[in-house]
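Minimal example, chain plus zinc ion.
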Amino acid sequence: MAVQIHTANPQPQARDWRRAIGNGLRGRCPHCGQGRLFKGFLKPVDSCEACGEALHHQRADDLPPYVVITIVGHVVVGGLLLAEKYADWSMGLHMAVWPALTVILSLLLMQPVKGGVIGLQWALRMHGFGGRPDTAERQPLPPAVQQP
Ligand SMILES: [Zn+2]
């Protein structure tokens, strides 16, 4: 006798996180890869113009800056150490190159990294991307208990 088990909540199909992150890095919708992900610098659209996927669930928050700091820190510190070891740069040249490179790389990387983070959140069905409301959504605080 065969036993069939029917679950009321079947597991959703897994999403390809590599493709979703790649689409996000290119500034495209993590679902379809066609629609724009941003309407301005670091401002994600509410929904995809091509497929209609709701993207307002994203909560990238502070992760993109942490990732950018890690990348830029490795590039700048590594470059500075290499320049110190193999080149004879003046202090003025160091002071001109490394702070400017830090600012430029940070500005160039911030939006693609944020797109990648949103793509990862979409692929992992975080923050409402899975069709269910986010249980960690900010709830209004209960009214303060009045002490007599
Ligand atoms: Zn889309």
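The pocket of zinc ion is lined by residues 29, 31-32, 34-35, 48, 50-51, 53 (CB under 6 Å). The first helix runs from residue 17 to 25.
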